[in-house]
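Quick check before the chapter quiz. The format below is the same one you will see on the exam, so make sure you can read both the input and the output lines.
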Amino acid sequence: MKHVVKILSLVVAVSAFWITLLQAAIVPQSHTWLLPIYFVVSLGCYGLLMVGVGIMQFPTCPQEAVLLNHDIAEAKEFLSTNGIDIGTY
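Here is the expected output.
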């Protein structure tokens, strides 16, 4: 819920800034109408950056890999004792 409030407050702040620029005519009208597009593109770039950082910092868990291999071997043994052929994968 906190993220929703943060995102909505950011949208309100950007909208207020955009309306202020439209009203004050500080920036030329042609550039002001492009601000929402710039905002969406910037938000997309930020999202891609956060996904990339998350992938680069993804933790490896060697203990969990060992447990997973043990579970796979146990499942293969259980299936082979029940007559189910799973091949030699």
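If your answer matched, good. The mean pLDDT is 83.
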